[in-house]
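If you are new to this repository, start here. Below is one unmodified record pulled from the training split, so you can see the exact layout before writing a loader.
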Amino acid sequence: MSATTQQVKEQSPTIDTSASVELGEDQVYHLLQNERRRNVLRYLHDVEGKVSMRDIAEQVAAWENDSTVQAITSSERQRVYIPLYQSHLPKLDEEGIIEYDQSRGTVRKTDAADVLYEYLEPGTSDDDVEGEDEHNPTRWERYYLGASGLGATLLAGSTLGLSPFSLLPHGSVGLAILGMFWTLTLGHRFA
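And here is the target side for that same chain:
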């Protein structure tokens, strides 16, 4: 498998065979270039099983109008529903990302959707959960925040002449702060 091709197994619920869906990077970006398709995937991310196309259209319309599903108007809903029905859902179905039953108005995401989620939210695929503690960005944010707080305390205490900070030469305070961030940056880079 090349670096630009992702493969996933797609299981049919009625047939006990599996077919491989290959998506090149260009196909992935083409599918994700439209905000409505991204919103459909966003809606389906935590949904299991079949969902009503109407439910998807209502939620996407609410997101697009910075509103709630209850507050959207019929025309706002229709402006989303028609393009989803005629274009976006058939496109995702054609590429094997969803199973779209147009006559019944139901949608179900397939395993191939996981490939697109990696592009929408890098580092959130199921494969990354295992190494979450090792490369958790929140951990590094906390380290940098702590170093910033410690550096600000050292600098303010030294500048204002507060004890025990007044005993430190100004140059050593600057070097200590620089050393903290240099060490954190190297640790983050090679972790």
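Two things worth knowing about this chain: Confidence is low (pLDDT under 50) at residues 1-20, 123-135. The helical segments are 25-32, 35-44, 53-64, 74-94, 113-120, 126-129, 137-160, 170-190.
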